[in-house]
Write a structure and sequence with these properties.
Keywords: Signal. Residues 1-24 form the signal peptide. The chain is of the alpha+beta class and 149 residues long. The protein has a single domain, classed as Immunoglobulin-like, CATH 2.60.40. It is built from four helices and seven strands, in the order H-H-E-E-H-E-E-E-E-E-H. Strand 6 (109-116) and strand 7 (119-126) form a beta hairpin. The chain starts with a helix and ends in a 13-residue tail after the last helix.
Length: 149
């Protein structure tokens, strides 16, 4: 039941994050999209640079763990859709990730939703590992007046 819920949530996210930039310029990397769960829409787009790709690849290869829960319930907060080109191998989970969704809300850890051959994986990442990522986006989103972001 919980895998179906995760799959349904991911499908909804994928629909909300459709990106036409990748179709227009196949040689360019698809943009990073910021989705505001409270507003129910994409609110910003960011250039998906080589530095960001490197930072996110490091998260996946060194810093992530499987989340103990398998349910996602995002009513408030931001979700960043990050396409990875080329896809990243996560050896400890034996999966390949070409796109991930970083879920930013309150708490000491961020959740990341990834797909491998349509199998969803919910991962956790300590918030302190993300400061470089947000600096590279040239923005530090403030969630619920939380200065720790």
């Amino acid at each position: 039941m919980s895998r179906k819920l995760v799959s349904a949530a991911l499908f909804c996210l994928l629909l909300l994050f459709s990106n036409l930039c990748a179709l227009a310029e196949p040689m360019m990397r698809a943009d990073i999209e910021q989705f505001d769960a409270g507003e129910g829409k994409v609110t910003k787009r960011f250039c998906n640079t080589e530095q960001i790709q490197s930072e996110v690849s490091q998260w996946l290869t060194k810093d992530v763990q499987l989340a103990p829960e398998s349910k996602i319930d995002v009513k408030q907060g931001l979700i960043f859709k990050i396409p990875l080109q080329p896809p990243v191998q996560v050896q400890k989970l034996n999966i390949t990730v070409s796109e991930l969704f970083v879920i930013v809300n309150t708490g000491p850890q961020l959740r990341m939703l990834v797909l491998d051959h349509n199998r969803p994986f919910l991962l956790i990442l300590n918030r302190d590992k993300t400061s470089t990522f947000f600096s590279l986006l040239k923005e530090r989103p403030e969630m619920h007046n939380n200065p720790s972001l």
